[in-house]
Amino acid sequence: MDFVGSHILSVSQFDRAAIERVFEVADEMQPFANRQKVTRVLEGAILGNMFFEPSTRTRVSFGCAWNLLGGEVRETTEVKTSAIAKGESFYDTARVLSGYSDMIVMRHQIEGSVDEFASASRVPVINGGDGSNEHPSQALLDLYTIKKEMAGRGKGVDGLRIALIGDLRYGRAVHSLCRLLSLYDKVHFTLISPEELGLGAEYIDEIRMAGHEVVQSTDMATGISHADILYVTRTQEERFPTQEEADRYKGLFRLNQTVYTENCEPNTVIMHPLPRDSRGDANELDNDLNENPNLAIFRQTDNGVHIRMALFALILDVADQVNQTARDVNWYTAKRF
Ligand code: CP
């Protein structure tokens, strides 16, 4: 894969060599993300961070990643504050914004919207999530996290046993992660969801065609036993036709410390793309797991900065120059990593 100047729209663009290259550069970004060193390699460059749908971690971590490389960020955070609310097309919006930016990250609720936007952009575009379709950078950071967590247990991604739990129909992070994991060998997928929220047949076919085993279940207790990774997701209520329909599926699968202790092997890793829905009627990942050392959710969010810095550095062809402007930080840095 040639990263330089490329759009990142789907994980289907990646092969294992490309993934390894992203992870290699992500590792090199750690001193900068961890506030030990500063680099100015993107000084003068501008990121258009266009989020037309709610986001906390994707928007802010993309912005931080760009800032940590020395660049400036301009943001839109809602359709109603952009001219799209006045009927402007993705084509016109992309033509305009790509005149102001060196790269654009875009999230929008419509599937395929980021592809349409990218086709008119004069600068590289990264898909920050398009409806229930794809979320490539989330899948890369999830896989990076899985690789690190498994390495700490003396295992790799080949032969992984993963249980994906919750709304697998609308969850774009799940869609992208399944596709990336399909590039590895002999992964065992257990798909735990209400029947109506099962993973789409096109994804299941793709996984099976790549030679992996897929088991579908509505029984969480059985499905999570013997898994290396539990990947929990919330009901994507914003994708349902009505709130009433979404509410029918909330709270059906809840992972808490008791369920974990009774059913899982002691070192099973717990992941979630976040946000988790901590409201009482949902609570798919309970706060009583917060002190469980196998809860990797905040390691995922930290890893997101490394991965997003790596994507920027590779696409703008500065991965080999990051250290040229590096210096130690000269302010107090809290020990948060
Ligand atoms: N995981 C994720 O996409 O989170 P945000 O919606 O907060 O960006």
Describe the structure.
There is one protein chain. With 337 residues, this protein is α/β, with parallel strands linked by helices. It has two domains: 11-135 and 301-328, Rossmann fold, CATH 3.40.50.1370; 136-298, Aspartate/ornithine carbamoyltransferase (Rossmann fold). It contains twelve helices and eleven strands. β4, α5 and β5 form a beta-alpha-beta unit. The protein is globular, with a radius of gyration of 20 Å. The protein binds phosphoric acid mono(formamide)ester. Residues 55-59, 129, 138, 273-275 line the site of phosphoric acid mono(formamide)ester.
Task: Spell out the blueprint of helices and strands.
Layout: H1 16-28, H2 30-33, E1 37-38, E2 46-51, H3 57-68, E3 72-76, H4 90-97, E4 103-108, H5 113-120, E5 125-130, H6 136-151, E6 161-165, H7 172-181, E7 188-192, H8 201-209, E8 213-217, H9 220-223, E9 229-232, H10 243-247, H11 257-263, E10 269-271, H12 297-315, E11 327-328
Parallel strand pairs: 2-3, 2-4, 4-5, 6-7, 6-9, 7-8, 9-10
Antiparallel strand pairs: 1-11
Helix pairs in contact: 1-12, 3-12, 4-5, 6-7, 6-12
The structure holds phosphoric acid mono(formamide)ester.
